[in-house]
Amino acid sequence: MTMQIFNISDDIDLTPGLPADGRDGGSYRRSIWQDDVENGTIVAVWKAAPGTYSYPGRDLEETFVVVEGEAFYSQEGSEPVKIGPGSIVRVAKGVASRLEILSTFRKLATVVPKP
Prior knowledge:
By secondary structure, this protein is mostly beta strands. It has no helices and ten strands. It has strands spanning 15-16, 27-34, 42-48, 51-55, 60-68, 71-75, 81-83, 88-91, 97-101, 105-113. The chain has a six-stranded antiparallel sheet with strand order 1-2-3-10-5-8, with no helix packed on it. A four-stranded antiparallel sheet has the order 4-9-6-7, with no helix packed on it. A hairpin with a 5-residue loop joins β6 (71-75) and β7. It comes from Ciceribacter sichuanensis. This is Cupin domain-containing protein. It holds the Pfam family Cupin_3.
């Protein structure tokens, strides 16, 4: 078995991610690990430029840790909260959320699809 070690700050193998509201781009993602099983867990790095990123409610649960940058984060029906390095955020299945990124932002996310 080969040991796999990843560095969150490596900007390698990035693919375009969700665009910022009103723009064609702004974020990138890199898959780190994914279960081979249908509906398996995904671990990924997400990097984004300043801007607003709106997420509709999705059929998945996400937990992420902020490793770089600052943002205001809100979920439907809640006031924005400032988050930064070390913040851990949980997004439940079906909950819409919004990130207003203030400075280059990077998070490590674990995504669990919920059938």
